[in-house]
Specification:
Number of helices: 4
Distance between the termini: 18 Å
Largest sheet: 2 strands, antiparallel
Radius of gyration: 21 Å
Helix content: 40-55%
Shape: flat
């Protein structure tokens, strides 16, 4: 009898990785708060979840070349569908879309969600260890 970590841990492992990646994106936004023409970005959890669910049933989009001089799309890597530019609430003169208060609030919210995912994952591991010990 073997233990399947995918079944035992559920989505918490992927959620923890997503939260870490989102923390990096939000920290990058905060670091570039004064950079002219910088566009704030954020990750969309729903898009990541949908991508994970559709990974096995992903459909390939075909492009047709109507002329022999067109560039083929083979080998072109599509951008991460979850990484999106954020729409600013207040336009700035230097075209920077970072709203420092929104970024800090999003970062704090993400930190709380990261801690929650980590706690749930930790409790799953404690349950597995208890099952292995026969407790």
């Amino acid at each position: 009898m073997s233990i399947s970590f995918d079944n035992a841990l559920g989505i918490h492992e992927k959620a923890l990785g997503f939260r870490a990646q989102r923390a990096e994106v939000l920290a990058n936004n905060i670091a570039n708060g004064d950079t002219p023409n910088y566009r704030a970005r954020d990750l969309d959890f729903a898009a990541v979840l949908a991508e994970q669910n559709d990974k096995t049933s992903r459909k390939q989009v075909g492009l047709s070349r109507t002329d022999s001089q067109h560039i083929s799309a083979a080998g072109i890597e599509l951008a991460d569908p979850a990484l999106r530019f954020r729409t600013p609430f207040h336009p700035s003169i230097d075209q920077n879309t970072v709203d420092m208060q929104q970024e800090q609030a999003s970062y704090a919210e993400n930190a709380v969600q990261f801690q929650a995912s980590f706690t749930l994952l930790n409790s799953k591991f404690k349950g597995l260890v208890g099952a292995l010990r026969g407790e």
